Amino acid sequence: MLDKNGIAKRIAREVKDGMYVNLGIGIPTLVANYIPQGINVELQSENGILGMGPFPFEGEEDADLINAGKQTVTLLPGAVIFDSAMSFGMIRAQKVDLTILGAMEVSENGDIANWKIPGKMVKGMGGAMDLVASAKNIIVAMQQVNKAGQSKLLPKCDLPLTGIHCIKKVVTELGVYDILPQGGFKLLERAPGVSVEQIKAATAGKLIIEGDIPEMVI
């Protein structure tokens, strides 16, 4: 299985040269550490940064430079800082090519629930609704099963929805999946050491398996 860094490293392979990419809170923030050499991308954080770099080394943190998850970050040459109005203007105008989000649940139809668990206090939805409504392409980085061993890839989300029919791809500790337009999680790759049977057992939604599934290259 993959750990959180392994998930981020695999998703970094989806980032293409010249892209503007928004990194959500949680596992997605780790993607900044694994952008392949020779790939020129602009990482955007919804709190008002364009040109984020990887996380700083210990002792080199600047408390004034944080991402949307309040983690200290670095800036690449040419980076700019601006207010939230400008940031969400970029997002709503579809200037962002790829959005990478965490999730608590994803449905086989591409719905996502990632902002609220009923009965638990939350500060608000944040920028998630704007991102799922406006992004051209969304990849979800998430754990496939919860602490109770229950699948989070579902026929239908149980938690309050953030967006509907908006997720294109999911990367978990077990594998990589495309969400098909007609519905269903199409298995593309298996995580190292993970069998198809393990994936079947961990997927509650419609799982589509065609031919031999290759093992992921990290």
Structure description:
- The protein is α/β, with parallel strands linked by helices.
- It has one domain: Glutaconate Coenzyme A-transferase (3-Layer(aba) Sandwich), CATH 3.40.1080.
- The protein contains 4 helices and 13 strands.
- The protein has a 10-stranded mixed sheet, sandwiched between helices.
- A hairpin with a 4-residue loop joins strand 6 and strand 7.
What's the CATH superfamily, by name? Glutaconate Coenzyme A-transferase
Give the overall pLDDT as a whole number. 93
Sequence stretches where pLDDT stays below 50 over 5 or more residues: none
CATH class reads Alpha Beta
Rg over CA atoms, rounded to whole Å, is 17 Å
Number of domains: 1
Salient structural properties:
single chain, 218 residues, alpha/beta, Glutaconate Coenzyme A-transferase, ten-stranded mixed β-sheet, 14% helix, globular
Briefly characterize the structure.
This protein starts with a helix and ends in a 10-residue tail after the last strand. It has helices at residues 4-12, 84-92, 128-134, 196-201, and strands at residues 20-23, 42-45, 49-52, 75-81, 98-102, 105-107, 112-113, 138-141, 153-154, 169-171, 175-179, 185-190, 207-208.
Strands, helices and their partners?
Blueprint (H helix, E strand, L loop, with lengths): L3 H9 L7 E4 L18 E4 L3 E4 L22 E7 L2 H9 L5 E5 L2 E3 L4 E2 L14 H7 L3 E4 L11 E2 L14 E3 L3 E5 L5 E6 L5 H6 L5 E2 L10
Parallel strand pairs: 1-2, 1-5, 5-8, 6-9, 8-10, 12-13
Antiparallel strand pairs: 2-3, 3-4, 6-7, 10-11, 11-12
